[in-house]
Amino acid sequence: MDRSLAEGALFTDQYQLTMAQLYWKDGLHERPARFEHFFRRYPDYGRHQAGYCIAAGHAWFGEWARTVRFGPAELEALRQHRTDDGHRVFDEGFLGWLDEVGGFDALSIEAVPEGRVVHANVPMTIVEGPLALAQIIETPLLNQLNFQTLIATKASRVRQAARGGSVLEFGMRRAPDQGANAASRAALVGGADFSSAVGLSHMVGFPPKGTHAHALVQVHMALGAGEIGAFRSYADAYPDDVLLLVDTIDTLQVGMPNAITVFEEVRAAGHEPVGIRLDSGDLAHLSVVASSMLDEAGFPDASIVLSSGLDELAIWQIRNQVRDEAPSYGLDPDTVTRRLVYGVGTKMSTSDGDPNLDGVYKLVAIQSEEAGDWRPAIKVSDTPAKVVNPGRKQVARVYGERGKAVADVMAHVDEDVAAPMHVHHHATPGVARTITRVSEVEHLLEPFTAAVQATDPDGQREAIEAARIRRDADIARLDPGVLRLVNPHVYHVSLTDRIFEMKQRLVAEARANR
Amino acid sequence: MDRSLAEGALFTDQYQLTMAQLYWKDGLHERPARFEHFFRRYPDYGRHQAGYCIAAGHAWFGEWARTVRFGPAELEALRQHRTDDGHRVFDEGFLGWLDEVGGFDALSIEAVPEGRVVHANVPMTIVEGPLALAQIIETPLLNQLNFQTLIATKASRVRQAARGGSVLEFGMRRAPDQGANAASRAALVGGADFSSAVGLSHMVGFPPKGTHAHALVQVHMALGAGEIGAFRSYADAYPDDVLLLVDTIDTLQVGMPNAITVFEEVRAAGHEPVGIRLDSGDLAHLSVVASSMLDEAGFPDASIVLSSGLDELAIWQIRNQVRDEAPSYGLDPDTVTRRLVYGVGTKMSTSDGDPNLDGVYKLVAIQSEEAGDWRPAIKVSDTPAKVVNPGRKQVARVYGERGKAVADVMAHVDEDVAAPMHVHHHATPGVARTITRVSEVEHLLEPFTAAVQATDPDGQREAIEAARIRRDADIARLDPGVLRLVNPHVYHVSLTDRIFEMKQRLVAEARANR
């Protein structure tokens, strides 16, 4: 089935196109405009909450924006669109303009690079260029960057909870249709070491990982060879990758003894088994007991892969329980947790608890005429947090004396951002302070061009590896309170005097001109 | 960017391929096997819960299964996959077999058709055929059917809450990457009348719908023409589709008076305005007041489109509040609610509250040898609900004397299902009853072939329209208690004596043969 019409330049909302045509009719379609993409609140998973997000999706969105075209199929679909009373929705002149511009090349995009920590209410993407194109790209930009950022954030939290333990992404079966691939990629950016998704893993240059499922054991049971027959078959085929799922019948009574028997056979044949997988029951308790059994049988290096409904909170609890329970089995808790590997699926790939990032895309400035001066744009609201911060802005991250990030500051692009700086709460008037003792002021927005290069496996892998380096560097510079998995400290997001005063003036004008 | 490697035949988990190769090495790869797909629990959104699901995704999954191929790119990716110590993961002989079978054509698939009501623990899809292929298709089947069923279910609940009011799907901006298209399609199957997604809507043969956004008003405000300038521009371009977003500055003080002014101009020019959109504030209260203003201004037929965080519970509450509040404005509540249209986005497209359906895919039978007898397969567990119901089964829906569905019954394919029937709880031994007074016994599983036909816009539209007819018929035959949006009654799911006894025997054997 050809989904190209749905996935190309028409992967947008209808009103973006009707507005674009309106701008064209009014002669505003090529007027330079500036939009900002930001999210309003961090994911809240119910029992736990994020205090930061990890930006992701840029490489794929950039490639999408660079390559999609208003081609013949797209224009024909729009040409055929009729109102209920039979009129064409889109004028041939407007379609001619779309045909002429072809795609989104005329837009200039800046972004906080993939892998970096991003905060609520701070622009993470900026689009500047012809109004009509900047309008049409709203939906695909939000769709692609919101989702990968959401999943990368969840994956980063899972990685935090695993504290150095390997994280494998296993979520395709319950992930959202072909959004599964974006979820796997975002998980690789945010915190997973590898994914089980075959095609996606090869596409982005990481080898896919996997073991075996209950079905293998069931087949051998139904045919009379039993669980141990399945284990032997696996070990025979993959002697250097023997990782056995031990819970099909009974983990401790059946699965573990069978696995150990086969491990001994594998070793006798000159290979070293990799480990076991636990997929049900009290994973923490079973980890401790299985660890003890593996040690006693002479396999102290065998890994224990855990799966079944894991998320950051479950992993955190498992690690705590192992710490409490291991000593009663005569084990060192750190030795047990060091052998744990986390297979995380559904809850990471769907951001269970909060499956959408509320990213928005707001007009902040438009030129008064072609090549004219920039006019800041406002949207007022009775809810202070929903009043747009106007104007062409830059974003600076300010680091304190200990090298930790202390605030993200929105300033006008023409402003020099340096300490001491007097700043205002991003939404609540009257909350202001002066930031002093600054070790570094870093500009977060970068041109998007880097993202839209190389999408061969090498380029894809390099993009992910570069994002991971940025992620680790940013996480290391976050305050531990902001990193907290539950009820995190709220990071400071501020406006300079100049932006604050512009906002106050525009709000007053909008309300006066009712 | 070419995502075809990630979206084709390798859109699966790595362990499916390593198991398939294992079956090939053991000579079991072409052994006929039977797997069942079912979900274990209905979505639970936290404050509300589903008592039924709507099956969806078949047409797209069927087309995927019919067309993907183990082609040169797929085989080369598998050929290049090496273990850490440099060995090839996949044997050339196994790749040769994949090349030879080419795709999934050898599998026979049955399913409960799209649009039909489906229940927890009842097989909704059955795959029978060569073991290795049936194994590999597990992940893409689960991925595609789980997600669309999840979203169609949410959309059906939204439709229930709207009680005849139009439902528009607006969710792309926060939907999961290109899973957004599957979400829009599933919403059209489950309960949305139209979608805002442009390409997808054209692809499936429904015209996309949309109005305008705040940006249009902001542009005109920034350039000095104000909100009314934006409204006039819109009305001038789309005189027969004037639907104005009235909350950019202040809904009742500014937006409504401006909209009514423009409505009068539109009417004076010989056109009839369509309505307004409310996107913030107390939507129920604003609906009543706006309704009153529109009536007084002589626009009693103008629609009121509501958007902003809607889901089934929000819509239900809005309708209740309108019922309570309309009389105090001298309005008939039904007149107000009849003009409401619901624009539902994020929460429907991501199944907010429960973003994944726990669909599983379990081996239930395998032939003892090529063309041999079928052996039922079991998976035991300490959790009764996780013990697989074994054997080659059919599914019958039993209707009572009032014509309402009273139970879904799993029976052996060779059994005759007729009343009176003695049945057992699907998971809990010891809970049994006899069903009498049956008006109809209906077989739910149908061959999948219908789904894999025509995927041109006509075929796509026909598939959705047919699914909607099945949906409405099934919803009409559900007990109101099962339809309840909050804390629904649990529908009966049962096993015949024959399946129950087979299950007890296999569990005992598995436990005895430890």
Describe the structure.
The structure is a homodimer of 514-residue chains. The first copy, chain A, is globular and about 80 Å long. The model of chain A has no long low-confidence stretch (mean pLDDT 95). In chain A, helix 4 (72-80) packs antiparallel against helix 5 (92-101), helix 7 (138-162) packs across helix 8 (179-190) and helix 8 (179-190) packs across helix 17 (457-476). The longest helix of chain A is centred in the N-terminal third of the chain and has 25 residues, at 138-162. Chain A is α/β, with parallel strands linked by helices and 514 residues long. Chain A has helices spanning 4-7, 14-25, 58-67, 72-80, 92-101, 131-136, 138-162, 179-190, 198-204, 214-222, 226-237, 251-268, 283-296, 312-325, 333-338, 346-349, 457-476, 480-483, 497-512, and strands at residues 32-39, 53-54, 108-111, 117-118, 125-130, 166-169, 194-195, 243-245, 275-278, 303-306, 340-344, 359-367, 374-376, 393-399, 405-412, 421-425, 432-435, 440-443, 446-447, 492-496. A six-stranded antiparallel beta sheet of chain A has the order 13-12-1-5-3-19. At the A-B interface, helix 1, helix 2, helix 3, helix 4 and helix 7 of A face helix 1, helix 2, helix 3, helix 4 and helix 7 of B.
